[in-house]
Amino acid sequence: MQEETGIxxxxxxxxxxxxxxxxxxxxxxxxxxxxxxxWPTAAGGASRAGAxxxxxxxxxxxxxxxxxPGSLPLVRPELPPAxxxxxxxxxxxxxxxxxxxxxxxxxxLPDPVWSRRVSPVSWLGPARHAPPGLPxxxxxxxxxxLLSHDHYDHLDDPTVRRLADRFGERIRWFTSLGYAxxxxxxxxxxxxxxxxxxxxxxxxxxxxLRIGALPAQHWCRRSPADxxxxxxxxxxxxxPSGLRVYFGGDSGYFPxxxxxxxxxxxxxxxxxxxxxxEPEWFMRAAHMNPDEAxxxxxxxxxxxxxxxxxxxxxxxxxxxxxxxxxxLRDAWRNAGLPPDRxxxxxxxxxxxxxxxxxxxxxxxxxxx
Length: 368
What we know:
By secondary structure, the protein is α/β, with parallel strands linked by helices. The chain has helices spanning 51-62, 157-167, 180-184, 257-264, 280-283, 290-299, 323-334, 355-360, and strands spanning 88-95, 98-103, 106-110, 144-146, 172-176, 191-194, 199-204, 207-214, 234-238, 244-247, 269-273, 305-309, 350-354. The protein contains 8 helices and 13 strands. It starts with 50 loop residues before the first helix and ends in an 8-residue tail after the last helix.
């Protein structure tokens, strides 16, 4: 696969993957080289000192509702034997925010995590409640990886190393600002860093895809020394056939979704997070609940298929693993949205979209 780079606005990348400084400092850039969420909706939550320990103390005192065994079914993926053809999108949910997106001949992995735990150490931390929907050894050749941010349930060191060992320079790594050095220490140099609203070209066998970094309301930190020195992002994918995908990464509900939909839509597939929202006084600034995810879908244009992510694999907060999709179904029904535009996948399940069917479904689902 040939490599192309392209710049949408401002910061951009060099061919080596290093970010050039913007001409004017955007609102999410802080003068000391760190980043921030520039919206009032980001106040409080995970950024407040002491909030984490208050949450943990509340859990210790009050407990949490337990999960029901056997509530997370696993199915066998249905991958195209020769890759997705032109005008086809095959989506397989691996678990949490990890998916295999096979689109116009290109295989893309957002936020790949195959480890048993998401933690700085392998013996402690949130563990899988469901195995990966596709075993790592059964992955097809991967052309691109998208990284939304540096938290352990999205940027998994063992998985990154396994991908680099197996596929080497074939993979193009797309990140927001601040990740090239971290990846270089793992022998990965084919990295494209992008600021919000920048995009780059990825040349595939059936044409060129546009990969765009977009805003999200979240934060980054892998260690106390990191601060907010890496940027978080959501992502858009525009395929040669015209199919458009939005990967929401990890985010609280924030006022930029309408702008994203207007600038990069209409989307044929929206992958939006719905889990890790309880207690809301602590989680809301960084994680959407299912009702807010439905609002985000409508803000983005209410077009295409909504597939929820960031649930059902690692228990990161107080709600049971199976609670988010149940609440999502209620929110979807209450919003009057068409049932056939909501797809709650099982681990390993594959859903197929075609460009022809997608074009027919681009009218906003709520009539806007």
